[in-house]
Fold:
Amino acid sequence: MYKNDTVYYPQDEMTTVLLPVTSGCSYNKCIFCSMYKGDKYCEVPFWDIEMQLLNGYAYTEKVFLTGADPMSIGFDKMKRLLDMIHRYLPYCACVASYASIKSISDYSVEELSILHDAGLRLLYIGFETGRDDILKLMNKGHTVNEAIEQAKKLNQASLSFNSILMYGIAGRSQSVDNAVATAKMINQFITNKVITMNLTVFHGTELNNMVNRGDFIPPARNERLIEIRTLLENLQSKQPMIFDTTHPTNIIKIKGTLPQDKEKLVDEVTNRLSKSFKI
Structure:
């Protein structure tokens, strides 16, 4: 049951009020993910959510909806939830949530716009990569074109989102090509932030089995650094966009705003590479 679940949330939401909405993952098929493998998907009952809000701090300014993909509850329930948050936490100016390309595809632009106006102001979306072959290998459940289509839909609805990317995900000798393809995808839409994560092979996942069989070979550290640099070099932001590698999984911690900080960020990665090659 959700009350005993491990709660996952983005690094940026460490001080945000957390509100459980779903338990487990409605998809739960990505071969690199171990977070929800033993959890059965379910929705948190509205009466339980209401009790938490009733006992919440009225002057709360931001809420993060927890669960692998709270957007999976659908438009009617999400609108009801946002209205409930507004009723009990009238000073809440931003509700944020994880979301998947798959769940967003179930919403129309009009519905997303309504949710934005009701308080949903930020989504965290796992795009991972801009290569269809790698998305298929990792069993992500969407294609690059579908990701671009749903991202543009969010742009139309004025609903901001952060794009989560995973370097190392394409395997050894594929990092440069993956970075170029991923940047090409991101360049098709407007995103608030690009958040990178370093591929980690977790015990018990199908990806771990593939590595043990020799079917997938993760790239070395320096190749991953080159992937980050290549991604940076190829990103062409249409408006100010934050580039953030400060998540704990990353092998280098840098953060800045593109395009103005691009040269500085590229130099930081290059300097780290130079030191690595000297060791």
Q: What stands out?
A: The two ends are 49 Å apart (CA to CA).
